Amino acid sequence: MVFPPMLPRRLDRIDLLRAAAMLWMTAYHFCFDLDHFGLIHENFARDPFWTWQRSAIVSGFLFTAGLSQAVALSQGQGWPRFWKRWGQVAGAALLVSAGSALMFPNTFIYFGVLHGIAVMLIVVRLTAGWGGWLWPAGALAIAAKFIAPTAIAAMPVLEFLNAPGWNALGFISRLPVTEDYVPLLPWLGVMWWGVAAGRWALAHRPHWLGADDAPASGAKRGLVLLGRWSLSYYLLHQPVLMGLLACWVWLRG
User: Fold this and answer.
1) Which of 25, 149, 157, 179 is the most buried (most CB within 10 A)?
2) How many domains are there within the chain?
């Protein structure tokens, strides 16, 4: 596979995009936690106001992950470095499963956003050389979400795809009951589009990704750092939020 050459450094604008998604996620989870403690009453599973936000936040994570993979490959990232980062993501996914099993034993997270990212990173790494075909491949992956219910209804033999384990593929006709669920379909399509967009930008508009930017400073530097440490922040923000709210509820009696 051939990628445009790129300086061996991180691009701050990608980290800024990731930081924006993290802050939006924090606000979303804070409202979710308020509902969990009975301080507000919202339907996060069905109200479009919340479901569309969740979809936008997950899309932001996966698109920027695709951009990052395009940049990493352009910089000649080898498999050893890839597996090192992948191990961090996969390990974090296991921690999320363990923590959610303690908090929500009946609806624990067995294939959430980190689990999905861990699998998608491998798929994206193996398919990054598809070039322009990543665009239609991504569109097909996204379209599968809407095709699946009709296909399964027409062919009951496919009903097994709704079972835990198989439903990680995302070709389902009903959503599982779990606190977070990010299957390969349709979300792999978003990451594929991120890779395709990153490849195009590196070849034609590298300044869009911040290739010519000076090092960030001030508040912008803080956001860049948040984007770079997004995995650690993701693991810690919910325990901190829920712990603070639990203390607040306890103090109020």
Assistant:
1) 25
2) 1
Q: Does residue 70 lie in a domain region?
A: no
Domain residue limits at 200? 77-211
Beta partners for residue 111, in sequence order: 181
CB of 139 within 8 A of CB of 189?
yes
247 token code pair = 């203390």
Smallest CA-to-CA distance from 160 within 172, 144, 177, 143 is with 172
With beta carbons less than 8 A apart as the criterion, state whether 141 and 116 touch.
no
Residue (of 103, 80, 104, 65) closest to 182 by Cα position: 65
Distance CA 164, CA 187 (A): 18
| Residue 243 located in a structural domain | no
Judge whether 125 and 69 are in contact, CB under 8 Å.
yes
Cβ atoms within 10 A of the Cβ of 143, count? Answer: 13
How confident is the model at residue 219, as a pLDDT?
A: 84
Q: State if pTM tops 0.90.
A: yes
Query: 3-state class of 165 per DSSP?
Result: coil
Percent over 90 (pLDDT), the chain: 83
Residue 92 lies in a domain: yes
Dihedral sign computed on CA atoms, order 85, 231, 46, 177: positive
Residue 6 domain flag: no
Which tokens in the block code for residue 17? 């995009």
Predicted pLDDT of residue 2: 47
Query: Please, which residues have CB within 8 angstroms of residue 207's CB and are 6 or more apart in sequence?
Result: none
- Note whether 70 and 199 are within 8 A (CB): yes
